[in-house]
Amino acid sequence: MSGLEDLYREIILDHYKNPRNHGTLPTPPAVMEQGYNPLCGDEVRVYLLIEDEELKDIRIEGQGCSISRSSASLMTTAVKGKPLSEVRRAVKTFKKMMALEEDSDLYGEEIIPFEPINERTVGELIALQGVVKFPVRIKCATLPWNTLVQALESAVQS
Amino acid sequence: MSGLEDLYREIILDHYKNPRNHGTLPTPPAVMEQGYNPLCGDEVRVYLLIEDEELKDIRIEGQGCSISRSSASLMTTAVKGKPLSEVRRAVKTFKKMMALEEDSDLYGEEIIPFEPINERTVGELIALQGVVKFPVRIKCATLPWNTLVQALESAVQS
Amino acid sequence: MANELVVELPDNDKVLDAQTVKQDFPIFKEVGQDPFVYLDSAASAQRPSKVLEAMDSYYHTTHANVHRGVYRVAEQATNLYEEARSHLGRFLGAPKPELEIVFTKNATEAFNLFAHGYGRKILGPNDVVLLTKMEHHANIVPWMILREQIGFEIRFIDIDAEGQLVLDNIEQQLKGVKILGVTMASNVLGTLNPIKQLTEYAHQEGAIVIADGAQYSPHLPTNLQVLGVDAYCITGHKMLGPTGIGALWARTSILEEMYPFLGGGEMIRNVTTEGFTTNDIPHKFEAGTPPIAEAVGLSAALTYLEEIGLENIRAHELSLTSYAMEQLHERLGSEIKIFGPENPSARSGVISFELKDVHPHDVSQILDQEGVCVRAGHHCAKPLMTSLNVPATARASFYLYNTESDVDSLVSALVKTVEFFR
Amino acid sequence: MANELVVELPDNDKVLDAQTVKQDFPIFKEVGQDPFVYLDSAASAQRPSKVLEAMDSYYHTTHANVHRGVYRVAEQATNLYEEARSHLGRFLGAPKPELEIVFTKNATEAFNLFAHGYGRKILGPNDVVLLTKMEHHANIVPWMILREQIGFEIRFIDIDAEGQLVLDNIEQQLKGVKILGVTMASNVLGTLNPIKQLTEYAHQEGAIVIADGAQYSPHLPTNLQVLGVDAYCITGHKMLGPTGIGALWARTSILEEMYPFLGGGEMIRNVTTEGFTTNDIPHKFEAGTPPIAEAVGLSAALTYLEEIGLENIRAHELSLTSYAMEQLHERLGSEIKIFGPENPSARSGVISFELKDVHPHDVSQILDQEGVCVRAGHHCAKPLMTSLNVPATARASFYLYNTESDVDSLVSALVKTVEFFR
Ligand SMILES: Cc1ncc(COP(=O)(O)O)c(C=O)c1O
Ligand SMILES: Cc1ncc(COP(=O)(O)O)c(C=O)c1O
């Protein structure tokens, strides 16, 4: 089954079968946001515990395919314990990797110079790079990230 | 301009240019009904004066093409002064001539044995027979007749 | 409630030869992938050359706008369009084909038209619309949108473990119901519902029945007069026709009563700056330039289906479905769960399933690498997904051009998928 | 208000050669009548081979339902459909092509969507919608249907003897107006309206502007950003595309605010038995299976138009219209009355007229015998007919494939008509 290896890397299958930071956090103090992929019925709930502009803890629950679940799991390991500014930057970097970065200009957001995408800068997330070749699955990969952004916003508002 | 002669017989052009029974009748005692052809914007107003189950008088007003106006004019000459039962039969006969008679069955109406269509039975109306070959124009020809039927109905109800 | 569905199936040797049928569909030769095992006809079917030729020929020789032209070409176009209307009416066994069919852009618009045209007319805040948990969103969301505007209650008939409607207490469930909306065949479970009997019950309670024929009429003979329903929806692209066309059938008396829905040209009798009056049915509901070429294409599709014979199509799909269920159980054992009725004759040619520990999205992705096209997702039936307690399913669906060898490809690809994720 | 419309017209020798263009349209060879002088493109245009080929090729190689498929063919279909959306957006000069175009079945549905989606949102019983007396029913009746549901006032901008909007007191007329609906080009009079300036006035009064581009975008270059309108409708079959497709363009902010209109699959984010949430724009407004092949065909039509160049098309039509008006006046003198602006550059390639003592229906019938196709009727603009004080008009309309010889045929046939009825 050639071609598929790009999508289903070892590490993806590992995070899919053994998701990190799976579960919930009590709200409050945590905030929770829910994301849907109307395309396939996937849903994800992201719990964030934020203190002093830092993402103290994150938990994820939901239903999804290997791509969305491993992306969620990889995301938690990438952002847990980081200052919020770094979390935001990670989101942008991830979106750039998903070839969605031109959006940040389109929607009139501030343009942040991205770091180059490579193993050193994005770590294990690099495993998700193969998704770009399967455009339908990009939404799967980005679902947890978009939900993270929503959760960050509602945390700021509350 | 061959083919057209079937549609635009002398007599049609004559009734178009010199419509018989043109005008209005005071309501009451007359009844009036209005008909539209949404296709082309034609409209016709039919005035009926009915006494003792007889169509004492009929007048027609409106805007329309040569076919609808001559049909209206020919109609008035065919039904004026006739008992209502004969008026109704004339309508059915005319519709048969327009190849619409199968409708009387379809709509669950009583089936009346029609007279054969020829000059003896329909008189000058025969001039309209050519319209059948121009299906779009059938609606023009039938507009005054349908409006007559409506007017008969509203006369019965009032 | 036993399913009263009885289709006289032909002898085995009259049943169609799918390999020959396939030749009529250019995509099986021209698509850029080999193999191309298309098992997604429940989402959209493919088209035989004859359908495409009919549309091309229409555009090459006859195109003009309909209904408002006096010249010959416009008249011919109008005739073709109106003949397509009658043809669809006859295909569905409608009592008055030329009066009762309203062309829409798809089945979804047909449901919206019925909800806003008829529902708005007869429903008040204290009324009830009864749907089923296996309805497609097309027969759910329009009612919810209308409910927001006028208020009423929407209830759902439950389903049992085998994906059959729970109808034991149907009389109870129908109490106070004004409109019953129910699918003829579930697009997920394949379940064929006992519409005729349901309609009898509904009519006893004074409810009007709208049936969703989107997944039924392409595959089994339809006779509206036998079914007894009051309204019915289909969509062209699932029955070998083009995209861009669907239809609502409803009884004349209902169409007469219905409010207009889309406003514009052709649906009016007169317009002044003060207001408007409506045209006769069915034109009253066809605002604007209709899908003319699409109607011509749909009519060609119906001709094709009629020539092959709906009984033959049903028999063929039934045999494929039986074979597929057998093979899936045999080769995948406890790795697979198939939703819906166990008995193939209680279902259409649709098989939704779940592979243990593999998400349907991943199933579909891996199958695609093997050239096998199946749909993964909620199939626009989210309440059903909730009811089945799954986020999504994978679904293979058959049509007249599918062969046993297509089924074999599906089964082998699934075996590989299981291995890949083990 | 002077018309600000300035289209840079090309030098004469760059203008298209209609005789060559005609070769691209199969109907001119294959229709079963000779001559075939098609002067009814304002009702519906003909299609070049490339459009039909694009649709056939789509069906031959790529068809599957869009948006919900993981497999490659479904993905390709989705891409083609979404590319068509962006293409139309770019063609119209939309700022965010991929977000702002909603595909509908025709322009009429687009107006209904806007009325029920946006009008319903912002209008209350005391509000005013301002239209013009030259609007097509598509931009009148949806407002009247909505008015029946929520109540508000509909006013009409008058027209003068030359068929121009009476705009002297436009600021007065716009007082209290929430929505202004106005056509870019009248389908009867040909009048090109000063939309840019009208929009500026409307915006000053806080009104939202929806423009009807059905008769404009097929014939002149459109730039929504220059026009400044808030919403815009087109229909595919008038711009060389197939039947069954149209579009609403609206600003993102408006689409975001709008209520959903048609409910069903694809427009939802989630559905439970309790209710539903909506999908992102533009999908929120595209319920059910969209006109996929039709979008592909429309995109091919746009490519064709772009290759020829809208400036060239405009220049060609302008020259035909000038020639026709000249000839009609010269050969028919007082027997003919031409409606609309006297100056051809103030109008599109549409000429409505009346022959003395001959009803338009009869004109069209007799012209048909000469192979000349013109429309007769109210052209779905009854308030305008009332305003012009005629029951109907005959209308000849030109497009890129019409030649001076077509105009000559029209004029001679009209001369014969006058003689016939004398
Ligand atoms: C100005 C104008 N607006 C709207 C329409 C409606 O277009 P459609 O019938 O394709 O919806 C037409 C065409 O009839 C038109 O001429
Ligand atoms: C059961 C059922 N009803 C309605 C529909 C809606 O059909 P369309 O998308 O063509 O409107 C579908 C197809 O998706 C369906 O499967």
Beta-strand segment tally of chain C = 15
CATH topology of the largest domain in chain C: Aspartate Aminotransferase, domain 2
Question: Which geometry of chain A do the CA atoms define?
Answer: globular
- Overall mean pLDDT of chain A stands at 83
Number of strands of chain A: 3
Ends apart, CA distance between termini of chain A: 48 Å
Largest interface (CB within 8 Å) is between: C-D, 98 and 98 residues
Organism (chains A, B): Ferrithrix thermotolerans DSM 19514
Protein name (chains A, B): Nitrogen fixation protein NifU
Domain NIF system FeS cluster assembly NifU N-terminal (chains A, B): 8-140
InterPro entries (chains A, B): NIF_FeS_clus_asmbl_NifU_N (IPR002871)
Question: Can you summarize this structure?
Answer:
Chains A, B: One of its GO terms (molecular function) is iron ion binding. The complex is a heterotetramer, with two copies of chain A (158 residues) and two copies of chain C (422 residues). Helix content of chain A is 46%, strand content 17%.
